[in-house]
């Protein structure tokens, strides 16, 4: 029986000359690549969480939609792109924020695939969940020119080390009930300069940390400046309700479209257990 989309990925092995580490990985190659190889394509890197460590190479493709959503026929018809999904044989990074050499091997894998295929080095993007989200943040810090933008799902990085992220294009998705990732992401984005949205972004960032959106209206859960409450309420109508799959579609239309090589700096996504609400402050509409 054919596993739709998953079976369209090819499995390879990469041995990194620099770290001497070996990575199994999945690669989706756009259907028209062989007959149109003079064209350059974007690349999306997806990195799985720690629950998929040391499984079959195809593991990251069947855990959820993090990799395959970019390779669906519908998405490829709108935005042809390579999709790269490594399978890690061990945990690469945890809460000590001390990555193994597989971290650098991942960066070298991205460069290797870029050189092997006709991939635009200015249109490489990274995403991941939990451990993969932490790796996306860390790679953007250590290798600032590797990716044009990142989609961070339920991950965090120490605020003191996150200064370089202020210049990066980030979309952050995190549940308000995630007591680790949510405060961590708020700390990273609290002073984010944005692009012409300095006051706007900081107001939203502070407010969503203190109150959860409920019943279609922000619910006040503590003292706050009345002006800040008004600013948050004014922007509530611009809040976009997205689940993981729709969030990907929203991003694909902006990130993979060659007219929009990256996202406008940062946004904070905060939600409850069942629904996710993403603030659109700082994003192109």
Low-pLDDT windows of residues: 194-245, 260-285
Specify the oligomeric state.
Answer: single chain
Name of the CATH superfamily: Alpha/Beta hydrolase fold, catalytic domain
Give the integer mean of the pLDDT values: 74
How many E-type strands?
12
Q: What is the string of helix and strand elements? A: EEEHHEHEHEEHHEEHEHEE
Give me the number of helical elements: 8
* Rg, Å, rounded: 19 Å
CATH class: Alpha Beta
Give the % helix.
25-40%
Per CATH, the architecture is 3-Layer(aba) Sandwich
Measure the end-to-end span. 41 Å
Residues in β-strands, percent: 15-25%
Strand order of the largest sheet: 1-2-4-3-5-6-7-11-12-10
Largest sheet: 10 strands, mixed
Helix and strand content put the structural class at alpha/beta
Morphology? globular
Q: What would you say this structure looks like, in words?
A:
The structure is a single chain. The chain has helices at residues 59-62, 73-78, 101-116, 131-142, 181-189, 198-210, 226-236, 244-255, and strands spanning 9-15, 22-28, 41-47, 82-87, 119-129, 149-153, 170-175, 213-214, 217-218, 240-241, 268-271, 276-278. A ten-stranded mixed beta sheet has the order 1-2-4-3-5-6-7-11-12-10, sandwiched between helices. Mean pLDDT is 74; it is low at 194-245 and 260-285. The protein is of the alpha/beta class and 285 residues long. The protein has one domain (6-188, 239-275): Rossmann fold (3-Layer(aba) Sandwich), CATH 3.40.50.
């Amino acid at each position: 029986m054919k596993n739709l989309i998953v079976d369209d990925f090819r499995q390879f092995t990469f041995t990194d000359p620099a770290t001497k580490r070996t990575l199994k990985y999945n690669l989706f190659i756009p259907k028209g690549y062989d007959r149109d190889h003079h064209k350059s394509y974007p690349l999306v890197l997806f990195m799985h969480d720690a629950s998929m460590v040391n499984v079959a190479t195809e593991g990251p493709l069947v855990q959820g939609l993090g990799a395959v959503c970019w390779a669906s026929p519908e998405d490829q018809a709108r935005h042809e792109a390579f999709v790269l999904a490594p399978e890690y044989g061990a945990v690469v990074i945890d809460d000590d924020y001390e990555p193994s050499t597989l971290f650098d091997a991942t960066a070298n894998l991205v460069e290797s695939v870029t050189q092997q295929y006709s991939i635009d080095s200015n249109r490489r993007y990274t995403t991941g969940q939990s451990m993969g989200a932490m790796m996306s943040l860390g790679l953007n810090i250590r290798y600032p020119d590797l990716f044009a933008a990142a989609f961070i799902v339920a991950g965090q990085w120490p605020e003191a080390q996150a200064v370089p992220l202020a210049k990066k294009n980030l979309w952050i998705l995190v549940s308000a009930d995630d007591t680790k990732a949510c405060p961590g992401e708020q700390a990273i984005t609290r002073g984010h300069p944005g692009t012409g949205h300095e006051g706007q972004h900081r107001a939203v960032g502070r407010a969503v940390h203190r109150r959860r959106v409920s019943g279609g209206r922000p619910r006040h859960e503590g003292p706050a400046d009345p002006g800040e409450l008004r600013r948050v309420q004014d922007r509530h109508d611009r809040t976009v309700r997205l689940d993981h799959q729709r969030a990907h579609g929203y991003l694909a239309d902006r990130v993979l479209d060659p007219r929009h090589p990256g996202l406008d700096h940062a946004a904070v996504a905060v939600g409850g257990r069942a629904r996710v609400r993403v603030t659109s402050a700082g994003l192109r509409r």
